[in-house]
Amino acid sequence: MIRSSAVEMASALAKGEITSVALTQLHFDRIASVDTDVHAFLHLDTDGALAQAAAVDAKRAKGEKLSPLAGIPLALKDVLVQKGIPTTCGSKILEGWRPPYDSTVVTNLKNNDIIILGKTNMDEFAMGSSTENSAYGPTHNPWDLSRIPGGSGGGSAAALAAFEAPLAIGTDTGGSIRQPAAVTGTVGVKPTYGGVSRYGLVAFSSSLDQAGPCARTVLDTALLHEAIAGHDPRDSTSINAPVPNVVAAAKSGDVKGMKIGVVKELNGDGYQPGVRARFDESLELLAKAGAEIVEVSCPNFEYALAAYYLIAPSECSSNLARFDAMRYGLRVGDVDGASAEEVMNLTREVGFGREVKRRIILGTYALSSGYYDAYYGSAQKVRTLITQDFTSAFTKADVLVSPTCPTTAFKIGEKSNDPLAMYLNDIATIPVNMAGIGGMSLPSGVADEDGLPVGFQIMSPVMKDERMYLVGAALEAALLSKWGAPILSKAPSLGGLA
Amino acid sequence: MSSLSRDEVANLARLARIEMSEEELVNLASEFTVILEAVARVQEVASADVAPTSHPLPLRNVFRPDVTKPSLTPEEALSGAPASEEQRFRVPQILGEEA
Amino acid sequence: MSLTYDDVIAKYEPVLGLEVHVELNTNSKMFCGCSTTFGAEPNTQTCPVCLALPGALPTVNEKAIESTIKIGLALNCSIAPFSRFARKNYFYPDMPKNFQISQYDEPICVNGYVDVEIDTDEGLKKFRVEIERVHMEEDTGKSLHVGGATGRIHGAEYSLLDYNRAGIPLVEIVTKIVPGTGKYAPEVAKAYVGELRDILRSLGVSDVKMEQGSLRCDANVSLRLIGAEKLGTRSETKNVNSLRSVERAVRGEMIRHAELLNKGERVVQETRHFQEESGLTRSGRSKEQAEDYRYFPEPDLVPVEPDATWIEELRAQLPERPSVHRKRLQEEWSVPDKEMAAMINADLLDTVEATVILGSDPTKARSWWLGEISRIANEQNVSVKELAITPTDVAEIVSLVAQGELTDKLARQVVEGVIAGEGKPAAVISARGIKVVNDDSALMAAIEKACAAQPETAEKVRAGHLPAAGALIGAIMKETKGQADAARVRELLLGHLGQA
Q1: What per-residue confidence (pLDDT) applies to C493?
Q2: Is residue C1 over pLDDT 70?
Q3: Of A80-89, A91-100, A185-194, C273-282, which range is least confident?
Q4: Average pLDDT of span A312-328
């Protein structure tokens, strides 16, 4: 049962073949058996989840009308606050903090009766591409435990790939949903910026952050997307418009006549041969399904990475200023005679990890007087140019596509001392965040040379999120009929369970 | 300009309120030489005629009506406080200007 | 103090710059729905947003924007077609996010002016104070310093923070530099803040209570040699919290600067704190290194682009300008220029007006407030508004006098009693047993008694020598403990002595 899709689980629940309590318990059992190896979760809310499941079962017994995902378990990235449940963002500085309020995403999940199993591991404050930057130890890729599960949302992606949960929530600032999805053989969507409320999402880079759905199938992802999306008056940057009809698109998968644009700059040098082979194969399948493949050029994408590593650190240097040992979280050095300033300095030194401090310092520099125009200001201009590239590309194609990342999962520790090499992981995912458009990653097979999963990225214009679901569903269906079984069936089984 | 001295890093650490060891300062300064060279590439295309984008969406005038909503209880407000007293957050002595 | 003010202005020209912070009187905070009620229990008006809990996001209070636009319009500003919030980054424990949401290079209102009138040696003269910008921001929390002798920050062992005030909407109004005021700089500064306060009050956007901090002024002062072009180094005196203090602070800083300059020393560009008791300023703790606020556009909020229709709607809601209002009052009350200026200068126009609205005769109201009551305030070295007497009290007293229930002299006793905290006029009258003796039989008894005591004087009056009546009247008034109406006493006495 735990290997089923959420849609299949929902159908079993509806038919009374299983209760939500039993389904939830099955997942906790799975977690107990594999998570010592995978380390996807930072906190499990066993009692809360089972109580919530029992409540859903009771509603179902009374014949109440339930949402499509009611009673299905979910793994929540530890960057979204849930009332009373520890939220650490993978950082020491928030160890033990229990928020007194729910994020809008959590409210929406609860309103849809989706069962929240617990909080998943992540790079500290979502800064990283490997989940190695978590203060609570790395998450391991279920495909190969010596490898990274991607980041920052490695915990959520690994939980899906290890069948610890059929649904998960991630957040994506430069690829933190899509890149983990790619390297774990799962599906992840970064909705249009403003499509899902950021209220209660602990900010890394406010103008880039976006929460989104993760699952093992395109349709499951669409159903979760629909559950969490929508206008929220508590987020001023939330779009006040109907949620794109992603579920219908995921069910249709009809790409006949659609123009699919291949971004010339997001391929070629630096991309692993197996990644390129799977990408080309996917294009052929989409062409067979009736789509027209065209090439587009986005010349300014080569500056996206540089701009990103100015904008995100700048915003984070300000967003993370609130972690100061005064109102919540860690406090270090509060001895007799110590000043508030000394306590702040020491707490932030001890409470933040290396990558976080590196980015705070970089952002502080980029915003400082005398350097603002050269760095932050120039990065904002690049952002304009990237958006213009997308606008012009979308006049030639309905969606754009590329490999999600240049390589498959690398070894834990392999790049942790080379920040620039690490940053290159996000080269294909970052432009999407810069322009605020939607992006999806779904599995396109495994690379021949290492047998590890490869991701296919689909990008759609602002609030046209349904388009990536159309193309994603088409490709998923074509690949499934080619392989005869979902990609995760190729992954090694863990914990001795089938 | 694409490099930072140890003292410049120390000043940034002060602005960012992070205590840093000598070793950390020196290491960061040397890392920054590489990182700044990479990010400085934005200047190649950031000409004067390009308008900056600070936000991905063209939203304007998003307001809320002037209506009060329930606050947290003081217990909830103070629930995460490392120290509290008299229903207030207790913090170490504040040096600096008298406001 | 070795230099006199006259010495200073003989040699130097002062240049002013004024920054006024106004707390708006919205129901909810600037960026969240918490209440703004003054004086609530600590941390009862806080939420994830104003406590800066991780994940919380600000949302803009529409009324605060409207109030700010109204302020801009009333100050003759242009309303920017595009403006934005920015983050001002610096760490301070009373500021939960460790950045303040403010406005930087894109404020909502720019380029306005306020005209003030000053009573100069050459008569009333108009000075124009130009406004650079009006922008929105948020207030900080309040800290209570525990330990140490003074309850002040220095020497405190630790601090206790209450964030009820954090996030209350503030509007900052910044002038351009104000040259050319010469010796009237302190008066111009005071008149400007007073005018601003009157405008804000008439708009109904703020409580404008300087004592409660809902209107605070920072005064920048610099001196240059008369005729010099280059501006001198300025000092910034913070949080001056009464109109009188504005004047005193500017005057004090002018003298302090002149003394330094005369000795060949430099004025240090710094923040100073005004000390109410001495009227002097004290140097703020200077920071070792300059702050760098690293302003950047607030990514959690979207730009404000007020359209013309909205601005015109708000313009239509503007009340009569205080200067127009004053001209109208002056005409209605037929007050000479000089006395009008005196009322404005004493900051009592609104008080007198309130008294008149409550039914008092304008001249009587003016004479009570500027006369007797101001005299008492002066004696006690406090401002009139700090006294426990209200326009209602004065209107009541004026009316009692008009009805003959009180004499002027008795009325003064009632005023004294009210100010002494003995209660409302009625309470004072009954507690002190103040009563006009208008019972003729009681008066007649006193008259007969006085005539019997001074038969010769009575005889003189009876013979037609009227001035002699004074001595008898004095005795009668003494007998009736001053509670008799002197005019009535005179009338009855003369009748009694055959002179009516």
Answers
A1: 87
A2: no
A3: C273-282
A4: 98
The verdict on residue A177 lying in a domain is: yes
* pLDDT tens by residue, A113-146: 999 999 999 999 999 999 999 999 999 999 999 9
Please state the pTM of the whole predicted model.
Answer: 0.88
ipTM more than 0.90?
yes
Report the gap between the CA of C22 and the closest CA in chain A (Å).
25
B10 contacts in chain C (CB < 8 Å): none
State whether residue C120 is helix, strand or coil. Answer: strand
Domain ranges of chain C: 5-315, 320-432, 440-496
What is chain B's Cα-based Rg?
22
Whole-number percent of chain A with pLDDT over 70? 99
User: Which of the residues A176, A205, A441, A460 is marked catalytic?
Assistant: A176
B-chain CB neighbours of C295 within 8 Å are none
The residue of B14, B31, B53 whose CB has the most chain A CBs within 10 angstroms, and thus the best one to mutate to test that interface, is B53
CA distances (Å), C298 to each of A299, C140, C160, in order?
Answer: 29, 18, 29
Residue at A248: amino acid letter = A
In this prediction, what percent of chain A has a pLDDT beyond 90?
94
- Residue A171 located in a structural domain: yes
**Mean pLDDT, residues A184-199 taken together:** 98
Cβ of residue A122 closer than 8 Å to a chain C Cβ: no
Query: What is the 3-class SS of chain A, one letter each residue?
Result: CCCCCHHHHHHHHHHCCCCHHHHHHHHHHHHHHHHHHHCCEEEECHHHHHHHHHHHHHHHHCCCCCCCCCCCEEEEECCECECCECCCCCCHHHCCCCCCCCCHHHHHHHHCCCEEEEEECCCHHHCCCCCCCCCCCCCCECCECCECCCCCCHHHHHHHHCCCCCEEEEECCCCCCHHHHHHHCCEEEECCCCCCCCCCECCCCCCCCCEEEEECCHHHHHHHHHHHCCCCCCCCCCCCCCCCCHHHHHHHCCCCCCEEEEECCCCCCCCCHHHHHHHHHHHHHHHHCCCEEEEECCHHHHHHHHHHHHHHHHHHHHHHHHCCCCCCCCCCCCCCCCEHHHHHHHHHHHHCCHHHHHHHHHHHHHHCCCCCHHHHHHHHHHHHHHHHHHHHHCCCCCEEEEECCCCCCCECCCCCCCHHHHHHHHCCCHHHHHHCCEEEEEEEEECCCCCCEEEEEEEECCCCHHHHHHHHHHHHHHHHHHHCCCHHHHCCCCCCCC
Decide if pLDDT at C307 tops 90.
yes
A200 and B CB contact within 8 Å = no
CA distance A255 to chain B (A): 28
Q: According to the CATH classification, is domain C440-496 in 1.10.10? A: yes
CB contact at 8 A, B63 and C66 = no
pLDDT of residue C150: 57
SS3 C145: strand
Determine the pLDDT at residue A309.
95
Cα gap A414→C360, rounded to integer Å: 88
Q: What is the pLDDT of residue B98?
A: 46
| Strands B63-64 and C60-61, sheet pairing | parallel
Q: Where are the domains of chain B?
A: 6-44
3-state secondary structure of C28: strand
Residue C159 to residue A314, Cβ atoms within 8 A: no
Question: With contact defined as beta carbons under 8 Å apart, do A131 and A111 qualify?
Answer: no
Residue A29 structural domain = 6-302+383-490
Q: Do B17 and A193 touch (CB under 8 A)?
A: no
Is position A452 within any domain?
Answer: yes
Q: What is the pLDDT of residue C258?
A: 95
**Residue B43 at interface with chain A, using a CB cutoff of 8 Å:** yes
